[in-house]
TrEMBL record:
The chain crosses the membrane at residues 12-29, 36-56, 62-82, 91-107, 135-152, 183-203, 223-247, 267-284. It comes from Paenibacillus alginolyticus. This is Branched-chain amino acid ABC transporter permease. Pfam families: BPD_transp_2 (PF02653). Keywords: Cell membrane, Membrane, Transmembrane, Transmembrane helix. It is found in: Cell membrane. InterPro entries: ABC_transp_permease (IPR001851), LivM-like (IPR043428). It is a multi-pass membrane protein.
Length: 313
């Protein structure tokens, strides 16, 4: 039991859960609503910096800072989701990539974010005088993940989720069915960003120091790879894909395989990611993916969608 509570193993699980939250948010945007995003790390960073600034420079309670960080990320994500109203598919991917790089540059050069020095001395949350670290923090992130999965299930099986899936399959058909695509596309970016914001806040208060390099394009690409391999439009797929790609390098470290040089672990990791992406090209739905379902299963009389001409706003 003591070995299971080893801080190293606990930290692995904590960061795994944080990446799962990131993956859930991205899968909502890309998997359920079909809006390709390559700037998800920006939402992650906004949540982390917002919570850090509010708690360190603003002097707010840690819990209040984390909650406000999610709200702030929700608002910023809605604004950053506005380009999805004008562009789509490859053009949307390039646009979100550009926005992500701009925001990372802001983190790196702005005085409020600490510039290149970042922000340190970020406090850990406390509950009834008990500082949440090690197993306490693990319980916190597990609770947040469980709530996140529950809310995601409820949303995707509701009227809102069905609207997103119709937009994913064919936006023109969605408009013909009376769905307010503007509202739903901005909403999915806002909610998906809020998931990333929660992950960012948890990340900041776990590591106690954040810098702009933690929220670059490589994070967005890694999370997208995790989601795509697991399967777009599937919560199980996100859990599997994130766990697979996050834990593989840790397994190499744990077993200390003789034929693997730890100095080149990052290179090995990218090779594995590349091989898995080749697999995805052959099987584009991923392992648990639900993409490509026929639109007739989402017709108004079967899915509770508004009939033609009705405004769903």
């Amino acid at each position: 039991m003591d070995s299971l509570l080893n801080p190293y193993y606990v930290d692995i699980i904590v960061f795994l859960v944080i990446y799962i939250l990131l993956g859930l948010g991205l899968n909502l945007i890309t998997g359920y609503a079909g809006q390709v995003s390559l700037g998800h790390a920006a939402f992650f960073g906004i949540g982390a910096y917002a919570s850090a600034i509010l708690s360190v420079k603003g002097g707010l309670d840690t819990w209040v800072s984390m909650i406000l960080a999610v709200v702030i990320t929700f608002v910023f994500s809605a604004v950053l989701g506005l380009p999805s109203l004008r562009v789509r598919e490859d053009f949307l991917a390039i646009t979100t990539l550009g926005l992500g790089l701009i925001i990372q540059s802001f983190f790196k050069n702005s005085e409020i974010t600490g510039g290149a020095y970042g922000i340190d001395s970020i406090p850990s949350p406390s509950l009834f005088g008990w500082k949440l670290d090690n197993t306490g923090y693990l319980l916190l992130v597990l609770v947040v993940m469980a709530v996140g999965i529950y809310v995601l299930k409820k949303m995707t099986s509701s009227r809102i989720g069905r609207a997103w899936m119709v937009i994913r399959e064919d936006e023109t058909v969605a408009k013909a069915m009376g769905i307010n695509t503007t509202y739903y596309k901005v909403l999915v970016f806002a909610i998906g960003g809020a998931y990333a914001g929660a992950a960012g806040a948890l990340f900041a208060h776990k590591v106690s120091f954040i810098g702009a390099d933690s929220f670059g394009f490589s994070v967005s690409a890694t999370v997208l790879s995790m989601v795509v391999i697991g399967g777009l439009g599937s919560i199980r797929g996100t859990l599997f894909g994130v766990s697979l790609l996050y834990l593989l390098p840790e397994m190499f470290r744990l077993f200390k395989l003789d034929f693997i040089d730890m100095k080149y672990l990052d290179m090995y990791k990218m090779i594995i990611y590349g091989l898995l992406m080749v697999f995805v090209v052959r099987y584009p739905k991923g392992i648990f993916g639900k993409m490509g379902s026929k639109l007739k299963s989402l017709q108004p009389h079967k899915a509770g969608m508004p009939k033609d001409g009705e405004n769903d706003a």
